[in-house]
Write a structure and sequence with these properties.
Blueprint: H1 2-26, H2 40-46, E1 50-57, E2 61-67, H3 70-76, E3 90-96, E4 100-108, E5 114-117, H4 119-122, E6 127-131, E7 137-146, E8 151-156, E9 177-182, E10 190-201, E11 211-214, E12 226-228, E13 234-242, E14 251-256, H5 257-270, E15 280-284, H6 285-294, E16 307-312, H7 317-320, E17 328-332, E18 335-336, H8 340-348, E19 355-362, E20 365-372, E21 393-397, H9 400-406, E22 412-417, H10 421-425, E23 432-436, E24 439-440, H11 444-455, E25 461-467, E26 473-479
Length: 483
């Protein structure tokens, strides 16, 4: 019996230690290295804050280019193929698009109803329905969206909602346990576990990327959901999965909260992201060196870490710092930069007008310069989405009689020109807009979208093509910024 007790006592002590660790984790403290991890606390904390989003895009009439069929064209219009109605082998047709539905996830970040999700979850939606963990449903509206980071901010009218606690994603470590919380494959309120596999990962899917990579299972429907630490705190917004089949096969990717916080603040305050622009093209030093070796060339840049600058763009911070093609950026504000994704994440937190110090190698010699960041338009001004009101005109879709008279199938007629950008550019009443910046315009909504996109682009100009009632074609360039 004594021998049995001697054998059992260490085992009992071991079990007691395991349970004490589990209880310790439930309090939200860090797990000692090599000890079991209890993720129930994190799941209980995070689940109420993650919502299901239903997306609806209603059926619409859309004008598209279709390949001309010379035989059918001859029977319906025997002169169409000879006199240009085919438009170089194509012709305009109106089609009825089907009603589309999809689902995704989102994360409640404030008790008054602000929710973060992915841009691709809400892009083009006519209706958004948000369902909470307790099955309450709300209609949502889009506050703002940013395609560059694939983030969007939506709002529901609610009070005392279960907002998640937001952690600093810089603090998470490779190998740390995380949970992915969302609504994958139509399975609501799903939690999967894994570890942080890598940080600052770039996949080439978006213009600004610095993903947290995890082996927690992420599938279709997880988009916009939460990646949380063992304390149930948000560290990232799940955005992508890496798969050759379309389903989970190893790794998922989340947008870190360091980027999310900046995007959310800008969307709330300005309606669009105030994006700083460093003004370089390039990539990781190691990738560049390896590509040169593949060509039989030996390269010595003085380092194997950092961002290799292949081209310096005009009016950017890099040009102001004296950076030249072939230099290597190694740090920003004293923070080490080992690859392009890290540089993108640092700059993504900044706004035009912010000052930064850039450290780089020029001919293998270290240089540090302090510069002011600018926006893509080369200024430090606040960039806001323009409304079609800035054009100073009234519009309506062309009538059936106009379509028949002018042999057109779409367009937006200028009914009246007041003081504004159109008057300054010489656009007159009666002009029918057909294309703006190569986008087909058949409704006021089409024009609004093009104006909105152009106003925050590097070149805020509308290039307009159209036709007058006489049949005369005309072209205009309409700057959206004041000189």
């Amino acid at each position: 019996m004594k021998k049995l007790l001697n054998f059992l006592l260490p085992a009992v002590c071991l079990v007691a230690v395991a349970f004490s660790v589990a209880a310790f984790n439930k309090a939200g403290a860090a797990t000692p290295a090599g000890q079991p991890v209890d993720l129930t606390y994190a799941a209980e904390k995070a689940l109420p804050s993650v919502v299901h989003i239903k997306y609806v895009q209603n059926s619409k009439v859309k004008t598209v280019d279709v390949q001309s069929d010379p035989f059918s064209d001859f029977f319906f219009d025997p002169f169409g193929g000879f006199f240009g109605r085919g438009n170089g082998g194509t012709q305009k047709r109106q089609i009825q698009t089907p009603r589309k539905t999809a689902t995704g996830s989102g994360v409640i970040i404030s008790t008054d109803g602000y929710i973060v999700t992915n841009n691709h979850v809400v892009d083009g939606a006519d209706e958004l329905t948000v369902t909470l963990n307790d099955n309450k449903e709300y209609s949502a509206r889009i506050i703002g969206a940013d395609k560059t980071t694939d983030l969007a901010l939506i709002k529901i009218d609610g009070k005392n909602l279960p907002a998640i606690t937001i952690a600093n994603s810089d603090d998470i470590k490779i190998g740390e346990w995380v949970l992915a919380v969302g609504n994958p494959l139509g399975l609501n309120n799903t939690v999967t576990a894994g570890i942080v596999s890598a940080k600052a990962r770039s996949l080439g899917a978006n213009s600004v990327e610095s993903f947290i990579q995890t082996d927690a299972a992420i599938n279709a429907g997880n988009s916009g959901g939460a990646l949380v630490n063992t304390r149930g705190e948000l560290v990232g917004i799940n955005a992508m999965l890496y798969s050759q089949t379309g389903s989970y096969s190893g790794y998922g990717f989340a947008i870190p909260t360091t980027i999310m916080n900046k995007v959310v603040e800008d969307l709330k305050k300005y309606g669009t992201v105030q994006r700083a622009w460093i003004g370089v093209q390039g990539g990781n030093v190691k990738d560049y060196v390896d590509s040169q070796k593949d060509q039989g060339k030996e390269v010595d840049l003085g380092t194997m870490e950092g961002v290799y600058v292949s081209k310096v763009l005009e009016d950017g911070a890099a040009a102001d710092a004296g950076i030249a093609d072939g230099d290597v950026i190694t740090a920003v504000n004293g923070e080490k930069v080992t690859k392009m994704a890290e540089l993108q994440e640092i700059i993504a937190r900044k706004r035009p007008g912010d000052k930064i110090s850039i450290t780089y190698l020029h001919n293998k010699k270290e240089v540090t310069k302090t510069v002011t960041l600018k926006n893509e338009q080369g200024t430090v001004s606040v960039v806001k989405h323009a409304d079609i009101d800035v054009l100073g005109a009234n519009f309506r879709p062309v009538t059936d009689s106009q379509k028949k008279q002018l042999d057109i199938s779409y367009g937006l007629e200028v009914l009246k020109v007041n003081d504004g950008k159109f008057k300054s550019a010489g656009v007159n009443r009666g002009f029918i807009i057909q294309k703006v910046n190569d986008q087909t315009i058949s409704s006021i909504e089409d024009l609004q979208k093009v104006v909105k996109d152009a106003s925050t682009s590097k070149e805020p100009v509308l290039y307009i093509q159209g036709i007058y009632p006489t049949g005369k074609k005309a072209y205009f360039a309409v700057p959206l910024q004041d000189n």
